[in-house]
Amino acid sequence: MATPSTRSAKKALRQLMHSTLTNVPSASLASQSNVAHALLTSLPEYLSATRIGIYLSMATSELRTAATVQHALAAGKTVFVPRLTPTPGHMEMLALHAAEDVGALGTDKWGIPVIAEGDERGREECMAGGRGLDLLVVPGVAFDLGGGRLGHGMGYYDRFFARYWGERVRGREGAQMPFLVGMALAEQVSVAGDLVPSDESDWALDALVVGDGRVIRFRENP
User: Fold this and answer.
1) What would the pLDDT profile of 89-120 be if each residue is shown by its tens digit?
2) Which region, left, alpha or beta, applies to residue 200 given φ > 0 means left and ψ of -120 to 50 means alpha?
3) Smallest Cα–Cα separation from 148: which of 195, 209, 213?
4) Of 56, 51, 57, 61, which is closest to residue 21 (Cα–Cα)?
5) Using CA atoms, how far apart are residues 209 and 216, in angstroms rounded to an integer?
6) Burial class of residue 127 in the structure, from the number of CB atoms within 10 Å of its CB (0-12 exposed, 13-18 middle, 19+ buried)
7) Which of 123, 130, 200, 217 is nearest to 162 (CA)?
8) DSSP state for residue 5 in the 8-state scheme
9) Where does residue 133 rank: exposed (0-12), middle (13-18), buried (19+ CB within 10 A)?
10) For the residues 51-80, what does the mean pLDDT come to?
11) Do 40 and 137 contact (CB within 8 A), yes or no?
């Protein structure tokens, strides 16, 4: 459990990053998104993956993922996107049917495309049937050079990681977590030596793709 000092440090960093990210020019956001898309879709882990999870992006303050979703679908990959369920703190990853599916989705109060309640019927959940994911593209508010990630504070992704570990990996010979890739604007990455505040519930990334052209690896995919 996070200590009061860690919670306070996370809150302070989120407030700082909110101010920073709202001032990123739209041209820079578009340019960095294009760079990150090219880098991500060139990763060996992406190229070999047949089942990927990816966040659907807000209009501002984070790298856009629409091009990557379309690229993955065109390459014949099964693409799963987040859906927040009525259960507090619970997130699942549901499959998109086709490229046109994304444009037909509604948006939530943050402007994020979402699968509406009722529309989840007939969509595969990523862990159904024990198949899981090969790669998962993860958003965040801030990232460090040690694989640390600070989320938006609701814990959806870290709870999903823990549930995935419990249902798909723990006690299963040869089973492993999906390759976890963070997507970051250059403004979201800390300088060398500075780590984002974390506690035992926070999961580390395997790699970080940055809009300034960097790919930072923390673990090689076996």
Assistant:
1) 899 999 998 878 877 888 887 788 888 777 88
2) alpha
3) 195
4) 61
5) 7
6) middle
7) 200
8) H
9) buried
10) 95
11) yes
